[in-house]
Amino acid sequence: MAEMMLAADGTPLKRSLARALRRQKLRALGLIAPLLIFVLITFIVPIASMLFRSVENQIVENTLPMAVEALADWDPNAGTPPDEAVYEALYFDMFLAAEAKRHTRLGTRLNYEQTGVSSLFRQSGRALDDIGKETQKPLEELNNAWKDGETWHGIFNTTDNTDTALLDLQRKRVAALTGSPASDEVNFAPDATLSNLLPKTTRAYTAWAVYTATQQGRDPATRDPWEAVATALALDLRTADLSAYTGPGADLLAEAQTADLPVPAMATAFADMDEDWAGATVWKTIQTHSSTYTSGYFLNAVDAQKTPDGVAWQPDDKQILLKLFGRTIWMSLLITFSCIALGYPIAWLLANLPMRQANLLLILVLLPFWTSLLVRTSAWKVMLQQQGVINDVLVWIGLVGDGDRLIMINNQFGTIVAMTHILLPFMILPMYSVMQTIPPSYLRAAKSLGATNWTAFWRVYFPQSVPGIGAGSILVFILSIGYYITPEIVGGTKGVFISNRIAYHISSSLNWGLAAALGTILLAAVLVLYWAYDKIVGIDNVKLG
Questions:
Q1: How many other β-carbons are positioned within 10 Å of the β-carbon of residue 520?
Q2: What pTM value is reported for the model?
Q3: Which of 43, 59, 85, 414 has a CA-to-CA distance to 22 between 20 and 30 Å?
Q4: 357: exposed, middle or buried (C-beta count within 10 Å: 0-12, 13-18, 19+)?
Q5: Residue 182: what pLDDT?
Q6: What are phi and psi of 49, to 5 degrees?
């Protein structure tokens, strides 16, 4: 049996080497950790967060939780609106959302799916108080005690019979609705007995108390509740059995139940706000897009739409995004090939000229980097327009007539010309760095063996320059596929890229979900093309010198 080799400290040599290598790796990781953490926080996390928006859809469920639950049993194919219970749930959900100023955000989200929903939610949010006042006024006229916030707090608050589940639920609901962390400092605990006897009222009052304490910083015991709480009380008193209840406010509750407070029919009240609530279309939209995660944004990104009946494609005259994707890929490839055709001779000159002349030419190549991108793009807009420099020169030398000036702006030609000029240095520099490493003696040897200039170039020089072409092509293609400033200025309606739509949805329409879906699809397309390039050419052949 071979004798085990030992280190100086007596440990096995293999174990000692493994420990040393592990220490070196940890030391190297410690050195790059700050940069790694910086990249993770400032680059990876924001991109992942943005891409997550393409499937995230919690706003419907967080804003209308009870309505969404009530709609689960509604058949959208029946062609009729849901029953009264769904309208009641919508009322209480909308009231809290309107107080938190979040109902308009939900309207904006659903407006992406059905035009007009945004104004419907905005208009309905303003009319909710009027529904509650129809019950609140008779209740306060019945007994002035109902005008005092301490009366409400004394009835529904408890210290030893707390409905903990309801309080936690409303904390989470308010936190999800407002985006603020749930707080334990509410100074209110719902009574479990009244939660069973008056469930709607306890739920509405608890939601108000949590919101008042956590979002407004006020004590619920000193504030009057929302009108919706009075409406909930009137609804509960219609069916509640209070004969055995002897707790706080028993007399007031019994008196209110005897008075038979008026309660508006919610379906009728919402129909009076807007006739769209009386139809089934809005409800179908809410039900269809009420899931926590959605494929709707990705369907919108490919000119389709998520409907109760499944996927529906947009009419032909509205299918623009798929065309933009195709145009973006095609024009980016065209720009890449044009940069190769123009950049290869320049890179060859840089690599084969004497150092003094090569440095001067290299400065000219780098000169555009010292000029603003916006200035360079605007200069092309001036040069390419019908009354621009290029057309004026063509008319002056007689190649075109004054009435037949070329249209070179606000189309694909203008975009390709401007972007080729802007991205050309990114093609030249990688090719130049690779060509510099090709020994000139290889060409001389080929010629000495009888090869012509073309044969020597094509069979000896060109294959060695392919890694530089690959590096420049990947760089130019990835940059061009994501450009939006240059196409926006010189492309018009026929030369814009899909990135222009992404920028529009982020900055103008604020449809970040659709923008994230478009960006995700664009990223996937780039990765697929990158994979195809690796399979055909081989990514190992890409070099920067």
A1: 19
A2: 0.82
A3: 43
A4: exposed
A5: 64
A6: -65, -40
DSSP-derived letter for residue 310 is E
User: What distance in Å separates the CA atoms of residue 346 and residue 361, rounded to the nearest whole number?
Assistant: 9
Torsion over CA: 315, 510, 378, 417 (sign): negative
Backbone angles phi and psi of 262, in degrees to 5: -70, 140
For residue 545, the 8-state DSSP code is -
pLDDT level of residue 9 (50, 70, 90 thresholds)? low
253 vs 6: which has the higher pLDDT: 253
Helix then strand then coil, in percent of the chain rounded to 5, is 70, 5, 25
Q: Which amino acid is present at 121?
A: F
DSSP secondary structure of 355-384: HHHHHHHHHHHHGGGGS-HHHHHHHHHHHH
Q: Could you identify the residue written with the tokens 């009870």?
A: 66
Confidence at residue 1, expressed as pLDDT on a 0 to 100 scale:
43
Q: How confident is the model at residue 232 (pLDDT cuts 50, 70, 90)?
A: very high
Q: What distances in angstroms separate CA 71 from CA 105, 118, 271, one per listed residue?
A: 20, 20, 17
- Tokens coding 372: 């603003």
pLDDT tens-digit series, residues 443-464:
889 888 888 889 988 998 998 8
